[in-house]
Design brief:
Length: 593
């Protein structure tokens, strides 16, 4: 460590001026380059004190006169710093401030909202109070911001959504960064508190909150799951409708053509495929505008292919676990049949458990009928109807009801027919084999797990999007947009901090795309020992942020007088904290700006 004198010359109306700062710095070498980390700004101290620090660092003896002079050292305030400093440094490295918009109060507030969503997700009221208790509020100047200012900043962000997402699309979906020209899209939902939002509606709740009004939102990502765009829909919106909107965004707003859209079986339906073909036809057969797609067939369609005279037969999987087939119902398409034995075993196990659980519920009703405590075909039917589909396997039971009897039998032939297709799924795509080989189609579809990972990040693991308390449509959309940009930050932070967390740094390459994913030996060892190869503790992502928060910035007053100089000084970082900033390729900053 050393004391550095930093001089800056500038011109004013009255003539040239010079400002001098004295900084306590640590210098180190990384990748052949010398870097400097500022630990404290010593400028407020008297020159005698600065000279004493310089002498002490040089190993010269320093005689203190604190007792004689009646002076002391006081820590006037200590604020958590490491967590917000790390996330802010990552945001700057990604160009997030410039991406959000021009410099100003609104941008500072939006940036603070995004960082707060990563570090300490909470309501807007709680967030404004939390800002003042960290260096984020002090350094960005938002410590005294009101909730009304936050709402105004959200309105400002909502107006800029298209511009922000267009920049992200050029960065991650354009051909230079995305040679496969592929985009992933999926839909999720979250519930709202209150009933006054125009977007709030009753629909299929992926959160299991059936009694709550909800919204739907679709997330568009690159092939690795990096968030690029998000769209909010009414809670009753169906998956195919959201997919059409995603195609319009990619084609019309982002100006990207010849893309391959990947969506699940409930989203890219035959009707939407026909609509997509019609839209391509309306472009005067300009092949540069063709939009390809990858999806999967539903269970009834797979059963039709597996009929006695169908192309999907078990003999296809004697030597390999995937094969291309064709069928007249899918002209101009490629069908890739896959069989995963591990998935087959899991589905068989789950079906058996669900059937047994349903049988237990129905046996209780049978016992009531036999005791005579439940009489009448109508009452028995009502009791059976309440229970038979509790676990979604009611179709596998045959029910016979009279006024005094109830007989329950399993449709074993039907169960066996369904079990024969366990572990089998069929993908469908319009992309030719020379552009997207068979194995690549399987990989593309399985990459939808990246989007599911993003939804877990947004909703539960990291960002706590739900429940939503906003009433105005634009505020709800801005709230989801903030969560998407925070997820963009988390995506990069998780990758950068993989050595410090349980994340698999080098997952094994999949030679067989149908086989289940596996963790590397190093990741398994790290998870079992809770230590990295250097013996340092390994934490989960939230635990690492909490540990970084213990790196504080302390305001130290040298002297007992109120006018004595106050020097902001960082606490001594732990090895994990220092490593976290090294992985972000940045020294630990004393100030965020």
């Amino acid at each position: 460590m050393h004391v550095a004198k930093v001089s800056k010359r500038y011109s004013t109306v009255s003539g040239p001026r010079e400002s001098v700062s004295y900084l306590l710095r640590r210098s180190y070498r990384e990748a052949g380059k010398v870097k400097h980390e500022t630990l404290a700004n010593l400028s407020p101290l008297p020159m005698a004190a600065i000279d004493a620090v310089r002498a002490a660092l040089a190993g010269q003896p320093v005689v203190t006169a604190d007792a004689a002079a009646g002076q002391g050292v006081q820590v006037t305030r200590s604020l958590p710093h490491g967590h917000v400093a790390a996330v802010h440094a990552a945001a700057k490295a990604l160009g997030l401030p410039g991406l959000v918009g021009p410099a100003g109060r609104s941008r500072d507030l939006v940036l603070a909202l995004i960082i707060a969503r990563v570090v300490n997700p909470a309501s807007k009221l709680a967030t404004t109070g939390w800002w003042a208790d960290t260096t984020l509020g002090v350094d960005l100047g938002v410590g005294d911001a009101s909730t009304d200012e936050c709402y105004a900043a959200m309105d400002w962000l909502a107006d800029r959504q298209d511009a922000i997402e267009a920049k992200l699309a050029r960065r991650h979906l354009a051909a230079a960064a995305n040679p496969s020209r592929m985009a992933l899209f999926d839909l999720s939902s979250s519930w709202l508190e209150g009933r006054c939002c125009p977007l709030a509606a009753r629909g299929y709740s992926r959160d299991g909150r059936k009694g709550k009004l909800q919204i739907e939102y679709g997330l568009l990502t690159d092939p690795e799951g990096r968030p690029v765009a998000v769209r909010v829909f009414a809670g009753s919106t169906a998956d195919p409708t959201a997919f059409v909107e995603a195609v319009k965004i990619v084609r019309d707003k982002f100006g990207l053509h010849k893309m391959v859209m990947v969506g699940d079986r409930g989203m890219i339906t035959s009707a939407r495929i026909d609509a997509l073909k019609a839209a391509d036809h309306d472009t005067d057969n300009d092949t540069d505008n063709d939009m390809g797609w990858v999806s999967a067939l539903r269970a009834p369609a797979i059963a039709k292919l597996a009929a006695d005279d169908g192309p999907l037969q078990m003999s296809l999987f004697d030597q390999h676990d995937l094969a291309e087939i064709s069928h007249p119902d899918y002209p101009g398409e490629r069908l890739i049949a896959c069989r995963n034995p591990a998935l087959a075993a899991e589905r068989a196990r789950k079906r058996g458990e669900l059937l047994q659980a349903t049988q237990t519920l129905l046996d209780q009703i049978v016992a009531r009928v036999q005791r005579g405590s439940l009489v009448g075909a109508d009452k028995i039917g009502v009791a059976v109807g309440k229970q038979i589909n509790t676990y979604k396997v009611g179709k596998h039971f045959q029910v016979a009801i009279t006024d005094t009897s109830l007989t329950i039998t399993r449709r074993q032939a039907q169960i066996d027919t369904e079990a024969a297709l366990d572990g089998i799924y069929v993908l469908r795509t319009s992309v030719p084999a020379e552009t997207l080989p068979t194995a690549a189609v399987v990989t593309a579809y399985k990459n939808l797990s990246h989007v599911e990972r993003d939804f877990r990040t947004i909703k539960t693991d990291d960002l706590q999007l739900r429940p939503i308390h906003h009433r105005l449509t634009d505020r709800v959309r801005a709230h989801v947009q903030i969560a998407m940009l925070a997820a963009y930050l988390v995506w990069h932070l998780r990758r950068a901090w993989a050595p410090l967390t349980y994340t698999d740094e080098h997952p094994p390459h999949h030679h067989n795309p149908v086989a289940p994913a596996k963790r590397s030996t190093a990741a398994t060892r790290k998870a079992s020992r809770h230590r990295d190869p250097d013996g340092q503790p390994v934490r989960n992502f939230r635990g690492l942020l909490a540990h970084l928060a213990t790196l504080t910035r302390n305001d130290i007053r040298y002297g007992n007088q109120p006018t004595a100089p106050v020097v902001p000084t960082l606490a001594l970082p732990t090895p994990t904290q220092r490593r976290a900033f090294e992985l972000l390729n940045t020294p630990i900053p004393l100030n965020l700006k």
